[in-house]
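Running co-folding for arabino-flavin-adenine dinucleotide.
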Amino acid sequence: MVQFTRTQVAVIGSGPSGLLLSELLRKAGVDSVVIDRQSRSHIEARIRAGVLEWGTVEALREVGAGDRMDREGMPHSGFEMYFNGFRHRIDLVGLVNRQVMVYGQTELTKDLISGRLASGAPLTFCAEDVRIENVTSGNPKVCFVHGGETQIIACDYIAGCDGYHGMARQTIPSDILQVYERIYPFGWLGVLVDQPPISEELIYANGSHGFALCSMRSSSRSRYYLQCQINENLEDWSDERFFDELERRLGPETGRHLQRGASIEKSIAPLRSFVAEPMRYGRLFLVGDAAHIVPPTGAKGLNLAAADAQVLARALIEFYHSGRVDLLDRYSDTCLRRVWKVERFSWYLSQLLHMFPDATPFERKMQQAEFDYIAQSENASRSIAENYVGLPLSL
Ligand code: FAS
Ligand code: PHB
């Protein structure tokens, strides 16, 4: 049996971009249907980002998904950078008068999902064989199978919020789609542990043996990362080996404060910079990781996805409320102008803070000189601060 549904916007993907977009639309009275190929439990078990720009914080509050974040999240006013044992604090409030919010992507995804389900708005998990049809016509469709039944969604517009490995981007013909990519020669080995964080603020360290990041999810749950080989075998990293290496990269002064414990999650993520242009094709709009990927060094992936969602929500709301199409027509250019600046910042920080296997002694000296310049130049520190808290959104 085939089941037909009619909506205004079909949203493919219930990660941060799809959920935030659909909830911004719902608040403005624009109908949308959200589908995801994974189960709710799979989506809510993913461990990913941990730092929210204040623009993302305000968007979550705007859709009514900010209460638990405001109770459990941790506003941060700065973070530390270490280079070969030297420390420098980026004073976000002192430099640009803004904070960031430390609150796990896992939690905000749960908050957005429960909010949407409580509203009764359509959100379907375990959607199989998702296909897009007629995307360059006036009556695009999204087809999928759910519970053995074929479902067809007729809509005005489609939001491809299905991430880097999704299918929406593949809908754009190869002679139109232009991709730009940089794959880094290392990955991040991440560990989650129920122990108090080593410090009150995040620490980004470029030690004599490579990058390390000390982050957190609460005052009793820490998130640590180590730069690792891209073909690393997770089984080769016992908790003891991980914490020994983390301590080594942080140096004795800081490392001695480390509180070890049994990891409750351990995973390796590859690092890449990636942009697909354009972010629109006919009635299809690409949003978030479906269109771009940044190395997590600048804590930007989730926030960039949230920014795209806000730009597209504004354009769609204006269309349905006043018939304006100019914001829709400008969506791709508006997003890409900011995407490339965020790609630059994430690439810049990754170049500065990691040990590149093929780095010459001169390149290592350049990293040292860059760090020294940041440490002694308020303007250089301010540049890092204004990018880290989030560049303005042109809505
Ligand atoms: P997402 O990938 O989150 O969501 C896409 C959704 O689409 C998924 O739920 C998927 O199931 C669904 N989907 C895919 N194909 C589909 C199909 N054919 N049909 C229907 N649904 C489909 N960012 C940071 O800022 N800091 C970090 O530390 C950080 N760590 C990361 C670690 C890992 C392992 C990964 C993969 C990403 C990390 N990121 C990090 C980036 C991450 O947070 C993303 O930027 C963010 O999830 C982007 O959100 P979305 O665009 O919604 O894509
Ligand atoms: C995290 O807490 O997972 C995190 C924080 C900052 C980053 C990347 C990841 O830059």
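Result summary
The longest strand covers residues 178-193.
Residues 49-51, 202, 213, 215, 223, 296-299 surround P-hydroxybenzoic acid (ligand 2) (CB under 6 Å).
Job closed.
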